[in-house]
What we know:
Elements: H1 2-32, H2 39-57, E1 60-69, E2 75-81, H3 82-97, H4 99-121, H5 131-153, E3 169-171, H6 172-175, E4 184-186, H7 187-209, H8 211-221, H9 223-228, H10 233-255, H11 265-280, H12 285-302, H13 305-310, H14 314-329
Antiparallel strand pairs: 1-2, 3-4
Helix pairs in contact: 1-7, 1-10, 1-11, 1-12, 2-4, 2-5, 2-10, 2-11, 4-10, 7-8, 7-10, 8-10, 11-12, 11-14, 12-14
Amino acid sequence: xxxxxxxxxxxxxxxxxxxxxxxxxxxxxxxxxxxxxxxxxxxxxxxxxxxxxxxxxxxxxxxxxxxxxxxxxxxxxxxxxxxxxxxxxxxxxxxxxxxxxxxxxxxxxxxxxxxxxxxxxxxxxxxxxxxxxxxxxxxxxxxxxxxxxxxxxxxxxxxxxxxxxxxxxxxxxxxxxxxxxxxxxxxxxxxxxxxxxxxxxxxxxxxxxxxxxxxxxxxxxxxxxxxxxxxxxxxxxxxxxxxxxxxxxxxxxxxxxxxxxxxxxxxxxxxxxxxxxxxxxxxxxxxxxxxxxxxxxxxxxxxxxxxxxxxxxxxxxxxxxxxxxxxxxxxxxxxxxxxxxxx
Length: 343
């Protein structure tokens, strides 16, 4: 029972990242009809927003500390973060410690701006082009962004720790009446799951309960009719592209303590996320979320030693095997709509 619970939690953790990235992908495809292979790069940029913000918070200046001396008796130089110098050691230290969550404030406008720039500067020219052209140009853009990040941040992963209060693990078994020390799980991974659930809920609520969201949903169903009503649906779709970029960026920001950011992390998640989108059904937001969590849990269970001993390497291919099975039985995916990418 404890192994099943742990693997389920691991699956929800992976599924959260898959679902967030797939949700943004589906938002872009459902509104603009664009297959955006640069979406994984937006996830990567979000992660490096957290890295940049953490570095800014850790900027220091040197002072001489008369209480500390070298072997010649000279005062030693010590580095003091600017935040601690401005706000005091306690508040400044707290701000530095909470740099990753606070970087959300920095990442949201940055990601929305990047989304707007991508859509207005490049992708709008490919709306009426074949999907193969869209894939090629966005994949090329992803490679460019990846190399830019590699140039400025290097090729090695950059550890970015979670706040001290969320480091370590929690005994979840005790909470559900099990023996102590049976189900131990990292706290930040649970935080990531609840964060992902909040973002997903916010996106669905925005689309379902706001006038803007209702117009966008109408435009996704029948773009021409909405345009004939005098509504500038293109502008709203551009805003949705920015929102989708922000969703991917926030997923990357909060994932940094789980997986140290590196320049190829966007590509690592991109292929899996596209599989999630196809399995869930192209253009289906609920399908993308459902498939993300489902495939995350299946991948987690496939990584168990007992399963790998029976079928070696199954953890590397399980997502693709499930995708093949689902698409053979349901060609439009779990919740796909008729006519999407069938022209």
